[in-house]
Specification:
The protein is an alpha+beta fold. The chain is 33% helix and 19% strand. The strands form five sheets. Strands 1, 2, 6, 7, 8, 9 and 20 form a seven-stranded mixed beta sheet that branches. A six-stranded antiparallel beta sheet has the order 14-15-16-17-13-18, with no helix packed on it. Strands 11-10-19-12 form a four-stranded antiparallel beta sheet, with no helix packed on it. Helix 1 packs parallel to helix 9. It binds flavin-adenine dinucleotide. The site of flavin-adenine dinucleotide has 35 residues, from helix 1, strand 2, strand 12 and helix 9.
Amino acid sequence: MKQYDIIVIGGGHAGIEAARASARMLCSTALITMSTSTIGVLSCNPSIGGSAKGHLVKEIDAIGGIMPLIADRSGLQFKMLNTSKGPAIWSPRSQNDKFLYPMYAQQSLQNIGNLEILEGTVEKLLISGREVYGVIYNGEEIRCKALILCGGTFLNGIMYTGKEQTVGGRINEKAARGLSDSLLEYGFEIGRLKTGTPPRIYADSIDYAKVRIESGDESPTPFSHRTTHVKNTMVCYGTNTSKQTHAILEQGFIDSPMFTGLITGRGPRYCPSIEDKIYRFQERDSHQIILEPESLFGNSVYVNGFSTSLPKEIQEQALRTIPGLEHVRIEKYGYAVEYDFFYPYQLMYTLESKRLNRLYTAGQINGTSGYEEAASQGLIAGINAAAKVKGIPELILERSDAYIGVMIDDLVNKSSDEPYRIFTSLAEYRLLLRQDNAFERLYEKTAHYGLHGGSERKVVKSIQLRKELEESLQQVRIPKDSVNDIYASVQETPVKESELITTMCKRPSVTLSLIREKTSVLDSWKGTAFDSILRQADIDIKYEGYIARHLADIEKFKELEHKVIPTGYDYDGLTSLSSESREKLKKIKPQSIGQASRIPGVSPTDISLLVIDLKR
Ligand SMILES: Cc1cc2nc3c(=O)[nH]c(=O)nc-3n(C[C@H](O)[C@H](O)[C@H](O)COP(=O)(O)OP(=O)(O)OC[C@H]3O[C@@H](n4cnc5c(N)ncnc54)[C@H](O)[C@@H]3O)c2cc1C
C-alpha cells in the first residue's frame, strides 16, 4: 500500500501551491487530480491579480509560492490598477495566456523530488476517530499523515445554461461525488454556492472599428521578484451593453436557472452575472464589457462583464446588440456552476479542520472565489500540513501581517454564505499592507520554511539599501533656492528657508525621484535599478504619521490577539453572556479574545465579560 506524508486532492490553484509547498518542505507528497492535463487551468477569466487580489499574489511571492512566476511567464498584458489613488490600493493585474498558464503550472510541479502526481478521482476519505489517514482513489487505498482537500467547484458540481443541467465541476469535466458525504457523516456543515462564466467568442468575428482599445502600462512590472522583465504583447478592447441588449436578456429570465429557483446557492455579489446586474440596477441603461483575448495561439476572446447562465439563443441575440459584436460567433456559451462548500468557521487559522485532525481544506471549497484567494490558502495549508508532519511551528498570518491574514480571519470568523472575495476595504491596516512591501512584511516570518530558491537575496539586499537610504536622508537639508526650484516645477508654494528632504517629501507632488532629478544629493541613487527603492522610501516618508498610528493600533490589536481562550472553554458556565454571543462563540470556538471580538453578533459587553472571567 502506498504511503505519503501528505496527500493533496486537486490540481487547481490551491492544490498547486499546497503540493509544491509540502514537497519543497521535504514531505513526500502525492497530488491527486482528476486530470493531469487540466492542472492550473484558468476556469474563468484569463487574468491574475486585480484590486487586492494583486496584493495576495505579491504576498504569495514573498512567501515563496509559484503563482506570481507563472503569471509573469504567461502574461500578455500588465497593468497597475488604482494608480490615481493612494499607494495602499495600487494593485497589479495581468492578462494571461490560457494555454501557457497551465503549461507553466504543470512544468513547475515536474522535477520536484518529493512530489508524485497521480491522475484519478478520490472517492472517499479514510478516517478513524478524529484522524484522517488516507483516501480511496481509483478504488485503491493510499495512506498519509495529513490531507489537503482543494476540490474547487467540483464537489457535487452541477452546471447550468438556461434549463439545461449537466453534472460537472467545469465545462467538459465531471463532478466529484462522495467526498461531501464522507465529511457530512462527521458533522461538517456544508452549503451550496454558485459562480458563473461568460461566453467566449471568436476574435475574427469582432468589428474592431467599433470598440475602444484598453492598453497595459507603458512600463509593465512583474509580480515576482524572480522575474526581471515582462512586456505587453496584446491589448484588450472595451464596449458597452445597451437598452436593447438588456431587453433581450430580460426575455430569457423565465428560463434562467437563477430566477426559476433551479440554482439555490448564492453567487458572488461583486462579480454578478449580466442578468443579475440588469435585475439589480434597473436604472442603468448600459454596462461596461471588456473583450479580453485569451491566448496568443488561438482565436478565443473572453467577454468580461457578461457572465451568464441564460439560454444559448438569448446569449447570442443579446451579444449581437453590443457595438462591435453585431456579427459575433460564439465559441463557448456562458454557464453557471453550483457546488458544495464547507463553512469555513469549521477551520483553524492554519486551515486545519477543527473537527478532524490533519485534514486541511483550501480554495473555493472554503467558500472563496478567485484564483488568488485559492492559491494563497493552498500555500498556507501546504506549509502548515508539512509543518505539522515535521513537528515544526505552524504559520499563522494575522490581519496586521498580510491580506492573506485578513482573508483567513474573515473566513474563520464571518463564515459567510456567499462567495468571499478579497477587497482592500477589508484590511484595516491598508497603508502597511501594500503590494510594494509584501516581501518586507513576510519574508523573515516565512523564510525558514525553505520555499525560496536563492533569488530572494537581491530583494533582501534592496530592503536593506532602502533602510539605509531612509536613515541617511533624516538630516539632509536642501538649500532654499534649490527647494524653490523644485517646488516651482510642480506648482508648490515657495519657502523662505532651506528644508529637510523629509519635509519636502511630505508635499504630495514632491518625490525623491524629482529631487534626484533636480539636485545632486541623490546622485549615488541614479539609475532605474533604484527607482523602486526611491518610490518605497517616498511612501514611508510621506505617510510616516499614518504609518506610526497604524503601528500603534497594531500593538493594541496584538494584545487582544495574544489573550488566549483555552480550548474547551465553557461558555455555558458564563451565564451573563447574551444568548446570541454564546451561540456564536460556541459555534466558532475562537482561539483568542481578539478573534472573539471580530465575530459578528458578539457584543463588546460580552467581550468584557469574557476578559474578566478569563482573568479569574
Ligand atoms: C464556471 C466558473 C466560473 C468562475 N468564475 C469566477 C469569477 O468570475 N471570478 C473568480 O474570481 N473566480 C471564478 N471562478 C473560480 C475560480 O476558477 C476558482 O476560484 C479557482 O479556480 C479555485 O481554485 P481551486 O484550486 O480552489 O479549485 P479549482 O480550480 O476548481 O480546482 C479543483 C481541482 O480539484 C480537482 N478535484 C476535485 N475533486 C476531486 C476528487 N474527488 N479527486 C481528484 N481531484 C479532484 C479538480 O480536478 C481540479 O483540479 C469560476 C470557476 C468556474 C468553474
